[in-house]
Specification:
The protein is an alpha+beta fold and about 575 residues long. About 25% of the residues lie in helices and about 15% in strands. It contains twelve helices and 25 strands. The strands form nine sheets. Strands 2, 3, 4, 5, 6, 7 and 25 form a seven-stranded mixed beta sheet that branches. It starts with a strand and ends in a 6-residue tail after the last helix.
Length: about 575
Amino acid sequence: MHFISNWKGGILAFIFAGILISQSQVSVSQTNPKYDIVIYGATSAGIASAIQASRMGKMVLLIEPGNRIGGLTTGGLGQTDIGNKQAIGGFARSFYQEIKKHYQKPESWVWQEAKSYRDGGQTTTSVNEDAMWTFEPSAALKVYKEMIAREKNINLVYNQRLDRASGVQKKDYAIKSIRMESGEVYKGKVFIDATYEGDLMAVSGVTYVVGRESASQYGESLNGVQANKKALTLRSKISNNAYYHNFIEGVDPYVVKGNPYSGLLPFINKKHPGVEGSGDHKIQAYCFRMTLTDHPDNKIPFIKPIGYNELDYELLFRNYEASKGPIQHMYSYGDPLVPWINSSMPNRKTDTNNQKGFSTDFIGQNYDYPEATYSERDFIVQRHKNYQQGLMWTLANHPRIPEEVRAVVSKWGMCKDEYEGGNGWSGQLYIREARRMVSDYIMTQRNCEKLDSVADPIGLGAYGMDSHHVQRYVDSNGFVKNEGNVEAGVASPFPISYRSIIPSATEVQNLLVPVCLSASHIAFGSIRMEPVFMVLGQSAAIAASLSIDKKMPLQDLNYTELRELLLKFEQRLD
């Protein structure tokens, strides 16, 4: 594994054209040069942190590097991954309660009647529940904006990106201020990094890791390379790791079938995937969670992107040809015909996600993203979008795709009334994993399986240990395979340690990291769910506020006092 203590890459000194910062937002930093709490990243965790801190009487600056708040919750992930709804309390539950109130209003139903809607996917809302767990991106954005507007102590700024070269000023072990690319400087008493990338954490000199640890490093069985179809978990349960979302047996990997000298098809790793359980620098695949519709008045047909290359989808064609019909025997859920999980959302929309061996996940094409410059990240994001746009056009139109598949996919399209830009595509890439902090406590598979316990819980994880595929390779039989998928359940909700969201005291004493927290790759695979990020964001704000009130470093807080506050604000810890 490679551990990095600070950002060492280059930085591009430019600001996107069209940055929109209102005069009122600029004047805020001039008239109030120091905030109680500065939050970088208006993701679901960042918004939870801001609202909680405001309710505790703290002056809050919430910085969004882009032009849209809410991260993946407003970026297409409307099919909430939870595991156990009873694990979700506090702000997170209140958000989903607000979602339910939104859909109780008749005017919220534009493209269908409320009575005709039925949840799809793995998360459903029961009739008598106090909350609703599936929603449109636009509905989540509306609810978040309304919740922020009710608070008097939150100043929100958009399009302010951290200067990753030297944008953090520290004295001793405390951050004093952070500087943006625009030159704006924001001072605070406590800082929270709520980004998916962990940029503030990295620039602040906190130790972190990118990639998968070896299974032996923390005594795990599901970390590192996972090429075998079945593996034993620590509790001796079988986990079907490489089985799901893989290719039909017999898919040829070469440009000219059977001819290794013709070269490998695109997106196949030339090297062996590695020894089973060994660590590497690679990360699980990204994609866009698509919001689709079949309503003719709201539908944008799939388009062939500029630069479309048919060879990029040759593996898709061959996977269908190898199956000789529907390939449902390979999968336990989702569509048996089309490589997607097309979960129903309100108003005849969907949350569409990856499924099968060749789908929306752009496997192996994101390794550089966590450490990349802003311009390099933009390029990676655009490559993912081009790939996925080409995939959807191919599934809907290409003659080598089975006719019955084309008939299903072509009924769908992007939504005219979702997202900026008018093309129906989210601007939020699904960053399933990037940097992960290494602090005094590291959450591992043993925590997820409750073999190890923590004395300082600040919230609960409940979803299964989940990793999407990491790489695509040629197996010993000369066929193409995907590697890295893990789907292993947890018996019940498990506690997450307070120490896992704060750095070591010898690095930074006034920074909290509720998203890129201290966890192994496989433990992060369970924790990395939007409701849990909200929970951890709220808990981070409670700890930050207590630290300010007590005038002491985050690492010195009395956990009994922190626990009392967590319970006061309805966090669920047991």
